[in-house]
Structure formats: C-alpha cells, structure tokens
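User: Here's a structure from my thesis project, written as structure tokens. My advisor, Dr. K., wants to see whether a designed sequence matches the one we expressed. Can you design one independently, without my sequence as a hint?
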C-alpha cells in the first residue's frame, strides 16, 4: 500500500474503469475515509449516498445533466461507467459544508489510491442536482432534510492511466 505522500503523487483522475465491482470491504474503507475527514466545528454533517453504477437514478441524473447542457450522444456517462458512485450532500444552512465535503471527497480519493483503485471527483452534475429537479433527486438519493448536493466521486478499478497533472509552484505559491 502506498504511503500518503506516494498516493498524493500517484493519484490522477481516472476516466475509464473495468467492470469489476468493489468488494464490500473496499467500499466500507472508502466510506470510513470520508467519515474520518475533519469537519468545521466537528459537525460531521456530510452525508454520503453510495450507489452501484447500474442504479437507474444515475441514468436520470445523466439525462438531466445532458438536457441542461444540451449534450447529445456523450462519449461516456458522467461517472465514466464506474462500478461505484458516492454522492456527498451537506446542510445547505451550514457555511462550511462545501469545504467539509471537499475534504471528505479527497479523503475518499486518497483511500481509493491506497487500495489500488482509481477515482474521479465529479462536479459536472451540480446544475442537475441543484436545479428545478433538486427536490426529486434529493429524495431519491436519500439526502437528509435541508441537505443539498456538494460533490460526488466515482470509484473503480482503473482501465486507463494518465500522468499526474503538472503544476507550477512559481505561479501558485508565495513563501514569505
Ligand atoms: C471540484 C472538482 C470537480 C470536478 N469535476 C469533474 C467532472 O465533473 N468530471 C471530470 O471528468 N473530472 C472532474 N474533476 C477532475 C479534474 O478535472 C481533475 O482533478 C483535474 O483535471 C486535474 O487532473 P488530475 O486529477 O488527474 O490530477 C473535478 C475535480 C474537482 C476538484
């Protein structure tokens, strides 16, 4: 298993998966990683909806996303046919829910890397889940009362590879 620093270096957004499902133990490790994330004031308000890739609600979300963005015949669905999708929702009245969900989803991504799995964080369904069908989707995804979509992640066995992204410390960092 990679160290945390190795996982950070190796991780890349995986946009292609094999059909192999996650084991229950792998799924539970990812859930635990999400729940172990720090949250503002230790509110632990982030809710995780876990779905198999063949859950019909995902097709409905895909259709709504495509309708809103006027996309016809996409090359892949929004979760790249991954066997598992996790949708994180948070209390819409809480100022830190988006940050808390971001930390939780990165915990899940790194845990996936630790297990030798691939993942990709998913923001592209935001308009679909927060739009006029938000009540319908929130109910179908069993979000707690007054919760809204924050972010999602697809996880599975990697069928593709990609170099980790490049970055510029010169541009993005100031050391005083
Ligand atoms: C908040 C957020 C939302 C993202 N949404 C999507 C998405 O909807 N679809 C997608 O393919 N990748 C998505 N990504 C992945 C980014 O495109 C990716 O992290 C970036 O291109 C850098 O590549 P890397 O993750 O391989 O290093 C998202 C990443 C973040 C942090």
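Assistant: Designed independently from the structure alone:
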């Amino acid at each position: 298993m990679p160290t945390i620093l190795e996982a950070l270096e190796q991780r890349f957004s995986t946009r292609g998966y094999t059909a192999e499902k996650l084991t229950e133990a792998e799924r539970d490790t990812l859930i635990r990683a999400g729940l172990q994330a720090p949250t503002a004031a230790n509110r632990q308000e982030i809710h995780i909806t876990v779905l198999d890739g063949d859950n019909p609600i995902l097709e409905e979300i895909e259709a709504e996303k495509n309708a809103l963005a006027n996309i016809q015949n996409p090359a892949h669905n929004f979760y790249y046919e991954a066997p598992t999708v996790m949708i994180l929702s948070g209390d819409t009245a809480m100022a830190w829910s988006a940050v808390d969900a971001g930390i939780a989803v990165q915990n899940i991504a790194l845990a996936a890397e630790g297990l030798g799995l691939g993942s990709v964080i998913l923001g592209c369904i935001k308009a679909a889940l927060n739009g006029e069908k938000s009540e319908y989707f929130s109910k179908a995804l069993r979000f707690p009362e007054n919760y809204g979509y924050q972010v999602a992640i697809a996880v599975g066995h990697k069928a593709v590879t990609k170099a980790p992204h490049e970055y510029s410390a010169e541009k993005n960092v100031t050391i005083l």
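When you compare it with your expressed construct, this may help: The chain has one domain: 4-172.
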